[in-house]
Amino acid sequence: xxxxxxxxxxxxxxxxxxxxxxxxxxxxxxxxxxxxxxxxxxxxxxxxxxxxxxxxxxxxxxxxxxxxxxxxxxxxxxxxxxxxxxxxxxxxxxxxxxxxxxxxxxxxxxxxxxxxxxxxxxxxxxxxxxxxxxxxxxxxxxxxxxxxxxxxxxxxxxxxxxxxxxxxxxxxxxxxxxxxxxxxxxxxxxxxxxxxxxxxxxxxxxxxxxxxxxxxxxxxxxxxxxxxxxxxxxxxxxxxxxxxxxxxxxxxxxxxxxxxxxxxxxxxxxxxxx
Length: 274
Known about the structure:
Blueprint: H1 2-13, H2 16-27, H3 31-36, E1 39-42, E2 46-49, H4 60-70, H5 74-89, H6 92-98, H7 103-136, H8 142-145, H9 150-173, H10 176-200, H11 203-210, H12 214-220, H13 226-233, H14 248-271
Helix pairs in contact: 1-7, 2-5, 4-7, 4-9, 5-9, 5-10, 7-9, 7-14, 9-10, 9-12, 9-14, 10-11, 12-14
């Protein structure tokens, strides 16, 4: 595993564009640090400081930071599809296979890289959330601090699943731009199917079916926290309550999709004449 991971990291770190995109994909989520210190002055009447609103308290901070950071996954997605595009355009994939790398090892090297960067991203967000929470939170009990750290697991699974989908599209079309276009097409397709199901049945049933689709199932791992923040300010408004928790069956759905994408990527490579 380490040999395959090292091989892939050497390729990425020798590519200037990949290095920039990797740097950006790691740095941008840390804008949550800037967000936590923002003070908004309303024409001199009062100053609103986001950190003082309680949104960075434990345990809600795990929800907020992972949701916010997951919005920047597109930058490393470009790196993933570029890994494949560059292999075909530079013909390094053929050379690697000639040098003794099996097709299975080739796919695994990509997957190990995805897991590695997803783990590093999760670790960085965990550290940032922990220190921001220690600074702003009024709760210091360990049971409260670590209560909802399962959002970190959901964040990790979400990244691995999304990047595995990007890997599959990269293998399918061999070109970075087309692979990214397929992501957009899949997004539109999922909502077209939602509309058709809603027309035939009802929205509640159609939405339950949509939750099994690739992109929607990844999104559902970490639901938006805005409604939850509002709930903390207006606890009497029961009509805005919703289920924001991380569920094991949702993680299971994404893991199944991830396994399928890796398997299909391998099958494509195995059947393709290089």
